[in-house]
């Protein structure tokens, strides 16, 4: 619509620090265009590779990924901008650094991983990732695959093994000794297995995978 075009033009001129994701009209029907929304994404202004629709804010996410994930996020994230709180390319591959970057926020967290096979997957966490003696979090937490195929895995109600942070690894989802997503302290080696919490398939092509990039997004 004219009003959304004017807003897009104004924000592009006046706020170059924000990446403005605008729906592509040629790929959407009339009904979709009427409900078009803006997602404001704050992140690295210069350091990362450009991505179509996302400016220079991310090394992993495409505009289509953001649109798909936005449909799955809980209502309390609506209207909040996406802020890149941590990335391995910018802050180094360290679980302790990841914990530190998330420690000042009580926002939900989106963990996005790109592995050595260029597959993209991750988890939405209802609470910030932190060291913990037991599992914590709520049923808002879910696992997802973004590329080469898109799929979300919601809480089954079977258990409450949502989020677990240790000094040497973190895990999302569990049951019978299997984690839906597990990552080591160097944010380099990971593992994904079917688990009772989300009834997910393996998120990566193989159970064990190598991480090329990992990003953590908060909603502010």
Helix and strand topology:
Layout: H1 2-14, E1 19-21, H2 30-34, E2 39-42, H3 63-72, E3 82-87, H4 88-91, H5 95-102, E4 109-115, E5 120-125, E6 142-147, E7 151-153, E8 163-165, E9 169-172, E10 181-184, E11 189-191, E12 208-219
Parallel strand pairs: 2-3
Antiparallel strand pairs: 1-2, 3-12, 4-5, 4-12, 5-6, 6-7, 8-9, 9-10, 10-11, 11-12
What's the SSE pattern?
Answer: HEHEHEHHEEEEEEEEE
Number of helices: 5
Number of strand segments: 12
In helices, the fraction of residues equals: 10-25%
Which structural class should the secondary elements be placed in? alpha+beta
Radius of gyration from CA coordinates:
17 Å
Domain TLDc: 59-220
Pfam family, one: TLD
GO biological process, one term: regulation of transcription by RNA polymerase II
InterPro entries: TLDc_dom
Characterization of this structure:
It is a single chain. The protein is α+β, with helices and mostly antiparallel strands. The model is unreliable at 19-38 and 43-56 (pLDDT under 50). The protein is built from five helices and twelve strands. The longest helix has 13 residues, at 2-14. Helices cover 18% and strands 28% of the residues. It has one domain (2-21, 54-219). Strands 1, 2, 3, 4, 5, 6, 7, 8, 9, 10, 11 and 12 form a twelve-stranded mixed sheet that branches.
